[in-house]
Amino acid sequence: MTASVAQIVALTLGVASAALWATVATSSRPVRSPAWWAPALGAMVAVAGGIAATAALWTHHWSFAADRVVLAAPLALGGAVWFAISGIADLRVDARRRASASTRLSAWTGVVAAAMGLLGAFVIGAPFSGWTAAAAWALSLGAIAIIALVVVRPASRRPFAVVSAGVAGVLVVSVAFTALGAAGPDPIHTAAHGHEAVTGEDPVQGFPGTDPVSVTQLREERTEAADVRVELDARAGTYELPSGDSVTAWTFGELGGRLIEATQGDLVEVVLNNRDIAEGVTLHWHGYAVPNGDDGVAGVTQDAVAPGDSFTSRFVADQPGTYWYHTHQAASTGVVKGLYGMFVVHPDDGAAPPDLDLAVPLHTFAGRLVMGATDEVATHVVAPGAEVRVRLANTDQVTRAVAVSGTAFRVLAIDGSEIADPGDLDAESVSIPAGGRVDIGFRMPSTGARIDDTGSRSARLSFVTADGAAEPARVAPTASFDPLRYGSAPLPDWADGPFDVDRTIVLDRLPRFTANGPAYAYTIDGAVFPQIEPTVVREGDIVALTIVNRGYETHPMHPHGHRALVLEVDGKAPEGALWVDSFAVGPGQVWRIALVADNPGIWMDHCHNLEHAALGMVSHLAYEGVVSPFDHGGDTGNSPE
Fold this sequence. Notes:
Number of strands: 34
Domain Plastocyanin-like: 248-348, 518-621
Pfam families: Cu-oxidase_2 (PF07731), Cu-oxidase_3 (PF07732)
Distance between the termini: 35 Å
EC number: 1.-.-.-
Radius of gyration: 29 Å
Shape: globular
Protein name: Multicopper oxidase mco
Number of helices: 9
Strand content: 25-35%
Organism: Microbacterium terrae
Largest sheet: 6 strands, mixed
Helix content: 25-40%
């Protein structure tokens, strides 16, 4: 049973037990009546099933079961045992009478237990700390006491009971909220206060340590002329697609963005000019480990670039691979509207380049898929036998999948990291998480080839051997590519641990107060940005992160400034070293990754479904000794999601 299925089973049984226990508690039928015993037995079965589902959840990860193990399950079990003892006593005394006050109160305890199970799942979330447990137990026992005073007491004592219940309710809620308030994390902003004299700035976030540096100091130090220099103009415009449809978009000069190419070792300089984007823009180099000061996150590494202003990024292109760039100012709006482009670093290893090398972003405008700059067929004439490499980047918010027809193919790279010994694949779909990249390679057959997005019937890449030649028919994939079972790169020596930092983070969706007010938010460890506790590291640390998705939606997680080694997915280790920087944590999944803290800074680690990030799912990897003078909101309008 998967974790998601076990969660649904536990919740369903919880609702069923609540309804059945409430039926028993409010029934006026005699205890010997089948109409009384039938729901009672059903409630007992539901409790047993719920405990079994909780045990199943625990086998997947403690975070799935913590709230149930600590609160709902013992309360439900205790109520069921109490009910059995009291109910049997009622049968022995006088089976023709209504259940005793004790028996009815035990049934109400079952209702409270089920309610607390739902509260834990949909309101409290995980991690379930000691303070949280204390608050939840206070609420539970207080609720049972109030029920005892109001519902079960004789009618002659009801006025006193109601007053007592009101006082008890106030006390219970006060204790609960006091305990919950004590559980709040220390946000990243608190530690930086009082270090102005050290950095020469007014740091508002970070962990200063003994000799702090600012993110503004973590930039490329070389000052000579760049090998690759590009100017990008961010502007709004209307673009006509090949289909005849028009889209209103924000772009870096052209739909799909300008392709920036460099060779390994080049010094790259990119000047961003904001022509007319009132909300502001930045340049974030997705997947590429630039110096922290060039990471392009408004409110963390810089202020948003206002209309009429510019920002220059400089870094050495020493990491070959396929990457992309996009705004990280109000990204849930800016990226969706088109502020993105491709960035490719070619290796300087003397190997012959492919005969055709394409970089193609996949993006949806107004419900229509655009591959590169076209929403229809992009045809390429290629000689038979030529080597073709297609670099695909998913710039959308959700996972996309592609399929190759007409030829066998290989996955050459994932997220910019080459795959060792890639084998031939045929009729397999390849999923690309939001923000992720996949490089596909094949030898051009004489009969042509095509690459389709499995969710689109219009946009595709077509490869033919001559103008006017027919492309092969689209073939439906019969299997899904599994990156855990592909390639054979050796693991680094540190992959088996021990780890200097080893943290579990829990993803969920819970009602919370965000910067924009109350919302059904996306949370990390039960909190929303900027209240999420960062992962604090020192340079040189080996860091392991276990990511648990308690929710029912996929979260494509993206740590900035580092590539991550996948250690396990749901307990299964990859057959070879699998390096990623964007990975989709599905509902009920548990991923375990590791990285080397070798790039000092304050780095975002967030869900790349940018709507989820905008609703709270943003954390940080923060190095000790690094602070930032930038902050979100305020006069600059920085919005770092």
